[in-house]
């Protein structure tokens, strides 16, 4: 019995820990996405580098999400069920909290899949779906707040507050940028087309850093 309890605690710690890291990653992805659109990244960073970091962290978050979900479902002391990984509010355990997490997964999954198929969908369709990220983050944040019982721990609370503050600042910057007409197009052409020519890559890198 004690070994089962210890195993369950281990699964809970891994699930909760990966969930908090996911919240931080998701928040960084949102902030980088806004920086890419508004051109507000540090001047020393080429804009295409910010966009690539945004995509890379998004893919890394998917791997961490699998760990988060699997460890939560395998925990023998809670009943979530595999259906709850895709169907929001299908879990008998903490239905609202788990449902919000599932909703965040579904919305973020739609953003990721359309990003992978972006060339076939076209810019307009991709951008329309990409706006779902602004709905997925609040769902993930509320899931993080309600799924755990460790908000009294100072560093957990700091992660939650810090993530919320960073995303709120980024969203406000995006709104003000749109109001001023400051949105930029997605960096695509020169850096990709220059890939076969080292001199052109170097020139594009220097141009993006200005």
Explain the layout of strands and helices:
Blueprint: H1 2-38, H2 47-74, H3 95-116, H4 118-121, H5 123-130, H6 133-147, H7 154-179, H8 189-193, H9 198-209
Can you characterise this structure?
75% of the residues lie in helices and 0% in strands. It has 210 residues and is mostly helical. Helix 1 packs parallel to helix 7 and helix 3 runs antiparallel to helix 6. The N and C termini lie far apart (63 Å). The C terminus is likely disordered.
Chain-averaged pLDDT: 80
Query: Count of DSSP helices?
Result: 9
Distance between the termini: 63 Å
Order of helices and strands: HHHHHHHHH
Instruction: Provide the helix percentage.
Output: over 70%
Q: Would you report the number of β strands?
A: 0
Net shape: globular
Radius of gyration: 19 Å
Largest sheet: none
- β-sheet strand percentage: under 5%
- Label the structural class: mainly alpha
Uncertain runs with pLDDT below 50, 5 residues or more? 187-210
